[in-house]
Amino acid sequence: MKISVLTPTYNRAHFLKKLYNSLLENSKYDVEIEWLIMNDGSTDETRDVVKNFLTEKKITVKYFEQENQGKMSAINNLIEYVSGDLIIECDSDDYFTSDAFKIISDNYRIDENHIYALCFLKLDYNRKENMGNKFKNNRTTMFDLYFKEGENGEKALVFYANIRKKYKYELKNEERFITEASMYHRMDQKYQILCINQPIMICEYQENGYTKNILKEFKENPCGFYEYFKEIFDHNMSGVPISKRLYVIKHYILFSYLSKKGWTYSQVKGLNNKLLYILLYIPGTLKTMYMFRKKF
Asked: How far apart are CA 268 and CA 21, in angstroms?
């Protein structure tokens, strides 16, 4: 079994060593590793740091560079160079637990024809605990996991490469970011995920990371988020609690405003969703106007 780890990085040279060391630690298991790094226009010493990894020749490292285009574009460009059976996307400030690849190997089944990923827990470095809840079901979809089963934290996905290569992050209007869930939900339409209640990845949020600056991402990439929330109405909403419906409607209104789509009532499907949209449109739009004028 061969695992391909994809890492987009931008001015994170000082974090790469920790991820590198975690890969070395996992190389003791009966798993072949290739680490594909995309330098997304960094201006720090990223190239020199990776050069040292290449010189050591302890694991296979494939290094690429591009002009700064953003995380999603970097991953899209790396996919074509993957040669592994499994694909893991790992941010430059994340790293693997000491037994991550053993856990993956123990749960990998080559004959799972209708599975696009194994889904594992992630650990929060600062809190020393799992991010979000443990899984309730062994087999599900990412949509059902977060919209019907009450999940509320990040997970680590290990994709079957033959399926993952059929998809990409579909960026809108030359934007640089879109939520990963947009791709997951398209994969959900044909396949499922297997959930394993074991952590394989450790996350350390940075002050300049996507999560810490989410409002900035919303402002700069509204069209992708708008399409994502619009597409949610196409899913089977049976079993989606009112709290999640409100979450979708509120964000749909938010990105309708930011992307200058205006009144988008006709795009909302389902009588209950239409009623919520009507009730929330004016207060939601006013709140968005106030929030983003204040922040930017």
From this structure: 48
Strands (E), 85-225: 86-89, 94-96, 115-124, 129-130, 139-140, 155-160, 192-203
Cα–Cα–Cα angle for 218, 288, 271, rounded to 5 degrees: 95
pLDDT in tens, 168-197: 999 999 999 999 999 999 999 999 999 999
CA atoms within 13 Å, Cβ hemisphere of 11 = 7
Distance in angstroms (rounded) separating the CA atoms of residues 86 and 88: 7
Q: What is the rounded distance in angstroms from the CA atom of residue 21 to the CA atom of residue 200?
A: 15
- Cβ proximity of 29 and 63 under 8 Å: no
Strand-pair partners of 202:
95, 123
**Domains assigned to the chain:** 2-203 (3.90.550.10), 214-295 (no CATH)
Pairing outcome for strands 86-89 and 115-124: unpaired
172 within 8 A of 223, measured Cβ to Cβ: yes
